[in-house]
Amino acid sequence: MKSTHIVVIGGGYGGIRAIEHLAHNSHIRITLIDKNPYHYMQAEVYDFIANKVDMSHIMIDLPSLCKSFGLVDFVCDEITSINTNNSTVHTQTQSFHYNQLIIATGSRTYFPDFIKGLREHTHGVKSIPSALDFKQQFERSLLNRIEAQTQGCEVKPFNIIIGGAGLSGVEIAAEMAAYANRFYQNGNFGCRGIDVYLIDAYETILFGMDPFLIESAYERLIKLGVHVWHNNRISEVREHEILLDNGRTLDFEFMIFTGGIAASTLTQYLGFETNPKGHLIVNENLNIPMHENIYAIGDITQAITEDGKFIPPTAQLAERGGEHVARTILRSLKGKSKQPFRFKNQGVMIALGGEYGAGMLPGGIKVKGYLAYLIKKTIFWLYTAPLRRRSLIGKHR
Fold first, then answer.
1. Which of 105, 166, 125 has the alpha carbon at shortest distance from 321?
2. Measuring CA to CA, how many Å separate 291 from each of 9, 86, 204, 321, 332?
């Protein structure tokens, strides 16, 4: 059988899952292209910025991982263009011909232009460098605050603002509050001075999610001391001050914005149809319309259900998309027809600071507390353990 070359752009959740399901076929050769030499597990970033784990916990080495599969090459480079006429991907230094192409470059933090100063004065956590910058600056500020206690406890407020109360915002707010509480308890510092504010435009946190998750998360946040401000729209962000549309203002030391995501900047240069946030429009097979050998998966796409409803971007959605595209390519190579992508949510688990969580399991089973925390950590281990075993094998090849 003639060899098929599949190019995968992006080593995130979706791209890695597609490779896992394709790499066992000896007649398929795969090239993974990513501008970073690591797989970033952004869904676990709250543990990293709260100092519960080190950087290695949220990354997997892509060169070693690819070597473990055999017929998978890794290229650390940035895509500049795609020529669909001759089926070629161009990077800054090379060109690659493809028979099948999978685009899975993920997303970036969406900073609405109508909020003045938001991009300039807030942190995002969609990349390891941005998460690391926040973590290091936060710890330095903690030290500065402790040193300021030589003048007594009358020091300025140390406020951390999380903008956006979706899944990432809630998890980060909870973990930062738990971290602050633990920090002051462990050190027995006399001047308690960190306050976490979760600010969101909707009437509830986790808007649109199951009431059990909303209530469980809200109760936990309040217990941790998080200030939850509903129905508050951010109108402007200054260097250390936020202004809300109701005239309210709040000083802050740090602000993390999680109020939305946009597709990676790659989509701006491809010439494919996108929505206003740059997400690629795909058909029911996850194909780019008019391009039967080009697929897009994960956060870079606009995912919708059969009845036209928006599917929130998650690691789970990206993984299911990767599996579907892999099956579709294998079917097409055998001359079989494509089948539409149907996403079935397998549940959701939310980390809520410390060793506490809440979640909905398949079948509508509800869990919260330490058990939910253990389940979430088990899910993460089941995902990472095979990848780490593979990367270890690839390291010694």
1. 105
2. 16, 12, 41, 17, 14
- 142, 232: one domain: yes
- List the CATH number of the domain containing 331: 3.50.50.60
Question: What is the rounded CA–CA span in Å between residue 162 and residue 173?
Answer: 6
- The residue segments making up the domain with residue 97 are 4-35+77-110+261-345
The answer to the question of residue 185 being in a domain is yes
User: Residues 311-359: pLDDT tens digits?
Assistant: 777 889 999 999 999 999 999 999 899 999 988 888 899 999 989 999 9
Answer yes or no: do 126 and 206 share one domain.
yes
pTM score: 0.90
Single-letter amino acid code for the residue at 265: T
24: its two tokens: 């066992």
Number of structural domains in the chain:
2
Same domain for 143 and 218: yes
**Does residue 139 belong to any structural domain of this protein?**
yes
Angle between helices 315-333 and 13-22 (to 10 degrees): 30
Task: Write out pLDDT tens, residues 93-138.
Answer: 999 999 999 999 988 888 888 889 998 998 878 888 888 888 888 8
* Same-domain pairing of 298 and 224: no
Token pair for residue 135? Answer: 């973590």
Q: Are residues 214 and 315 in the same domain?
A: no
Which spans in the chain are helix H?
13-22, 45-49, 62-69, 118-121, 128-147, 167-187, 211-224, 315-333, 370-395
The sheet carrying 100-103 orders its strands as 72-76, 28-34, 4-9, 100-103, 291-296, 287-288
